[in-house]
Amino acid sequence: MAITSVCHSAPAASAEIDGAAQLLQRKPVRKGEMFTNVNLRSIRPGFGMKAKRFDALLGRRAARDIAFVKSLDASMIEGGFEA
Question: Which CATH number, 3.40.50.720, 3.90.1210.10, 3.30.450.40, 3.40.50.20, labels domain 18-72?
Answer without folding.
Answer: 3.90.1210.10
